[in-house]
Design a protein that fits this description.
This protein is of the alpha/beta class. The protein is built from 19 helices and 10 strands.
Length: 602
């Protein structure tokens, strides 16, 4: 293993150690203590078993000389043998049962920690990573936690201690040669295991990469199945997946072949060591230096060592594979967010909901400018609309207002407070957003509306649905509010999804409303109704509206025209028509399209 690999493995190991001793859970600490005590007693019983068995064999071989005592002493020794064997088994099972809660608590704690950290990362991180691969990192990493905690604490160290104890006993009873053979056998076994496993780990990494590819391509394809059908690309998607499956097949076969090689090599080392020890014992019996009972002791110790040694090889392989999975998981924890609360950040102090963009510059990439020197003010309780061609930077303004990104220059202020100086939680709590692309959870309609305020009671949730003209539609569904909306809300039409988004924004009862093409998927009649409702509900509150259809913002207190990342016009609807600029041009174009559509329908 190279230096970097050792460094990562040690980091992973030491990261896991605190989970062995949950500092705030006294009940779990008690379980760890009792589990360790069970481990010590089980190993003591296991080491004593061969000695009792050897004594029983010798006494059984001398039954003729002991006549009257044969029912007493051999029977007691045999019963002791059974008691030690049973005690070892029971204590090991007790150890595992007690530690199960500790391990599962560690899985839960770390999974929540990773999940919380991922939600704290910036939008830029999530847009640059594939959700399928992230999901696999988390699944494989958390599944490895229990294995690593259990086997590191209760298998590796105890096995090494048992090997040392057996070596000492063999040396004391039968001489150094037996201990030397044992040590050499174990050393060769461990060296061989490490060398082959290091090679297998590289193959495992390739298999994990291929597995990530499969998951990512499958998730992307199924989430966008409508697009696949639009372009008749089912065969193309199957071929893409088949390519990833072929890579995984190749890596998986190599993994299995390397495992077979390792198993054969390990078995050969153990077999040679056992055979050599038995030959030595047979020669000593011939020379009168050992009894048959001693032969049984040597053989039993070797067989007992063979089992943990074989497990040690298996555990080492699994640990190396689990380390790879855990490294991926911990790499997510190493990710830092581009947007973080300042050390002295304070909650937003509400004072009407005034919004100000002051000389804001922003670009997603260095060579691609989105906003340049954008300045505007939205007075408390007024409605400001932002219009302009596609790609002008309208939606970017919402991302900056919600602080998904920070501008490269300039300031965004709410009620005179730079949003970089306030907590993100309080900022977003003050803003109700209706996005252009509404994404719903694969749950019920009730859950998706209630998402605006999970603490709201049923009356408030139903009132929000009525305000969004959604209640009657839901009541006519067989399952009503318990209707499942499907993955990303695919069981609903675009207009129905948008009304759900409006309902949950209304339920939030925010100080500021942000509507990003909030009625773009609605028919004209429903659009007019909801526009009137939105105007009524947002009355007296600050509203920022991004609009494509200019007819929806003619009553706005202020209209900003955004073109190529700059505000080129500003004013009310009549004022902008009088200026005869881009806004007037867009207005005439849309009126012409509406007239043509109306004529075509007649």
């Amino acid at each position: 293993m190279n230096q970097a690999g050792r460094s990562h493995s040690l980091r992973t190991f030491f990261t896991l150690l605190p989970y062995l001793w949950p500092s705030r859970r006294h009940d779990l600490q008690a379980r760890v203590i009792v589990a360790l005590l069970s481990l010590v007693l089980a190993k003591a019983a296991n080491v004593y078993v061969p000695l009792v068995l050897g004594d029983a064999v010798d006494q059984l071989g001398n039954l003729d000389q002991q006549q009257g005592l044969w029912l007493g002493i051999p029977l007691a020794v045999i019963l002791a043998y059974g008691a030690f064997k049973l005690s070892s088994l029971v204590l090991n099972q007790l150890r595992d049962a007690l530690f199960a809660r500790v391990a599962q608590n560690a899985v839960r704690t770390l999974a929540l920690r990773v999940f919380r950290h991922l939600h704290a990362l910036s939008v830029r991180f999530h847009l640059s990573r594939k959700t399928g691969a992230l999901n696999r990192f988390i699944d494989r990493g958390t599944n490895s936690i229990q294995f690593l905690l259990s086997f590191v604490a209760f298998n590796i160290a105890p096995t090494l201690i048992e090997v040392l104890l057996v070596g000492g006993i063999l040396w004391a009873l039968f001489g150094f040669v037996y201990t030397a053979v044992t040590i050499v056998t174990i050393a060769v076994y461990v060296w061989l295991t490490f060398v082959i496993t290091a090679w297998r780990t590289r193959i495992r990494r390739q298999m994990n990469d291929a597995d990530n590819d499969i998951s990512t391509r499958t998730v992307d394809s199924l989430l966008n199945f409508e697009t696949v059908r639009y372009f008749n690309n089912e065969a193309h998607e199957v071929n893409r997946l088949d390519s990833a499956l072929a890579d995984y097949e190749k890596a998986a076969v190599r993994t299995r072949e390397s495992l077979s090689l390792l198993n054969v090599a390990q078995a050969a080392v153990i077999t040679v060591g056992v055979t050599l020890m038995l030959v030595l014992a047979a020669l000593d019996i011939r020379d009168g230096d050992m009894t048959v009972g001693d032969f049984v002791v040597v053989n039993t110790y070797l067989m007992q060592l063979a089992i943990p040694l074989n497990m040690l090889g298996t555990v080492y392989r699994e640990i190396r594979q689990a380390m790879v999975d855990m490294e991926n998981l911990f790499s997510l924890m190493d990710e830092s967010t581009d947007v973080a609360d300042a050390a002295d950040a304070h909650p937003l102090k509400h004072n009407g909901g005034a919004i100000e963009f002051r000389n804001v510059d922003f670009n997603y990439e260095t060579e691609r400018r989105i906003l340049h020197n954008v300045s505007f003010t939205v007075d408390p309780g007024t409605t400001t609309a932002i219009v302009g061609p596609t790609g002008a930077g309208k939606s970017t303004i919402s991302r900056l207002l919600l602080r998904f990104y920070d501008p490269q220059a300039g300031q965004v202020l709410i009620d005179g407070q730079d949003i970089r100086s306030i907590t993100q939680h309080s900022l977003r709590r003050a803003i109700g957003v209706v996005p252009q692309d509404t994404v719903l959870f694969n749950d019920t309609l009730y859950y998706n509306i209630a998402y605006g305020d999970p603490q709201a009671d049923r009356d408030r949730i139903l009132a929000a649905a009525r305000a969004a003209h959604l209640h009657d539609f839901i009541e006519n569904l067989p399952a009503g509010y318990e209707t499942l909306v499907g993955e990303r809300g695919l069981k609903l039409s675009g207009g129905e999804k948008q009304r759900v988004a409006i309902a949950r924004a209304l339920l939030r009862n925010p100080e500021i409303f942000f509507f990003d093409e909030a009625t773009s998927s609605l028919d004209s009649a429903t659009e007019n109704e909801i526009q009137n409702n939105l105007a009524r509900i947002s009355q007296g509150r600050t509203s920022l509206v991004i609009a494509h259809r200019l007819s929806t913002v003619v009553n706005a207190d202020q209209i900003l025209v955004l073109e190529d990342g700059q505000i080129t016009e500003q004013g009310t609807h009549p004022q902008l028509l009088t200026q005869n600029g881009l806004y007037a041009q867009l207005w005439r174009q849309q009126k012409k399209e509406e007239l043509e559509k109306s004529s075509a329908s007649d």
